[in-house]
Amino acid sequence: MSSAPPLQMTGGRVRFDGREALSGVDLRVGAGEFLAVLGANGSGKSTLVRALLGLVPLSGGRTEIYGVPPARFRDWKRVGYVPQRLPAGGGVPATVREIVASGRVARRSRWRPASSADRAAVDAALRAVGLADRARDSAHLLSGGQQRRVLIARALAGEPDVLVMDEPTAGVDAASQAALAAILRELAGRGRTVVLVAHELGPLEPLIDRCVVMEHGRVAHEGAPPPPAWSRAAQAEDPHHHGPREGARSDEIGMRAG
Ligand SMILES: Nc1ncnc2c1ncn2[C@@H]1O[C@H](COP(=O)(O)OP(=O)(O)OP(=O)(O)O)[C@@H](O)[C@H]1O
Ligand SMILES: [Mg+2]
């Protein structure tokens, strides 16, 4: 079983309200691979990565995480996920540190308090995204770009083997994008698997091993970077490009623990 790829989908289909958002996708993400998922707004990028992790059910085909269907997968500490949309406000306000520490939950044994390893991982993740000095602040007081960095830090704190990030650089300034590129370069160097959804690769482009370009719920192009000029042109022309949509769906708040 150890040779099973981190993520593998075969003939994956997803329907929303009778419309197909994913139409028979075959995708294998190998261990240590850095895959970029590109495509215009509404082409199915988020649906693809959420379906790969079992966050939306398939209406056809199958998908496996390290060889196990998501419903039976238990080893969530191996998986990190940065959702595209921020969870809606409400609930108890949490500090930046508390949210980042929640990324360790799948690693902790049930009755143990946070260990020094947990605290060190949280500190390292906060430093990596440049938010160490905001650790005690309430997360809802941060800017949108800073909140995205909190979600990135939460995923990093879990020290996952496979990291799935849905447009982590949307609305994030150039300095933070460069910092994220440095973090991802380090993870890639340590053999971690990364799936990155993006509109533009920017400073991340040199890290990419393979691109898939989504179009109308299908993989329209697959190959080595850089992405084909036609796909970049299509994205640039897209009149509906508005970055991440407002409003969150509660199922995107986080990975299930344990
Ligand atoms: N929960 C949902 N309910 C109904 N329709 C949905 C839902 N999620 C996505 N869709 C629809 O499925 C299609 C693909 O959406 P998806 O969010 O996967 O695209 P995307 O490529 O990630 O777009 P963006 O670049 O805007 O993030 C779109 O037509 C979208 O409106
Ligand atoms: Mg999306």
TrEMBL record:
Superkingdom as given in the UniProt entry: Bacteria
Keywords attached to this entry: ATP-binding, Nucleotide-binding, Transport
Entry GO MF terms: ATP binding; ATP hydrolysis activity
This protein's record includes keyword Nucleotide-binding: yes
SMART domains given in the database record: AAA
Pfam families in the record: ABC_tran (PF00005)
Chain residue ranges for the region called Disordered: 222-258
Protein name: ABC transporter
Protein species of origin: Actinomadura rubrobrunea
